[in-house]
Amino acid sequence: MDKEAIITKVNGFLVEEFEIEESLLEEGASLKKDLGIDSLDIVDIIVLIDKEFGVKVKSEELAKLATLADLYAFIQAKTE
Fold first, then answer.
1. φ, ψ of residue 22 in degrees (nearest 5)
2. Tens digits of per-residue pLDDT, 14-44?
3. Distance of CA 11 to the CA centre of its chain
């Protein structure tokens, strides 16, 4: 899956499910500090990644990601 499609889907569920302002969704944004993603949100993101991309993710893998760009790259690597 190409990066633009991943960005569109991820940003879509971050806005819809987590009510994050679209203007905050920049690649360098910190998941925790800038977007307010906490450990409970990580579980929800894992479910959404499985649903949207068909990719199984462990919470430990996702917890290591720091920025939105890291999340996009992680999903891209898993879907290739």
1. -60, -30
2. 999 999 999 999 999 999 999 999 989 999 9
3. 8
**C-beta of residue 56 within 8 angstroms of C-beta of residue 16:** no
Q: How remote is the C-alpha of 61 from its chain's centroid?
A: 12
In angstroms, the CA 41 to CA 39 distance is: 5
What does pLDDT average to over the chain? Answer: 94
C-alpha distances in Å from residue 29, one per residue of 66, 70, 80: 8, 10, 24
Three-state DSSP state, 78: helix
* Three-class DSSP labels, 59-78: HHHHHCCCEHHHHHHHHHHH
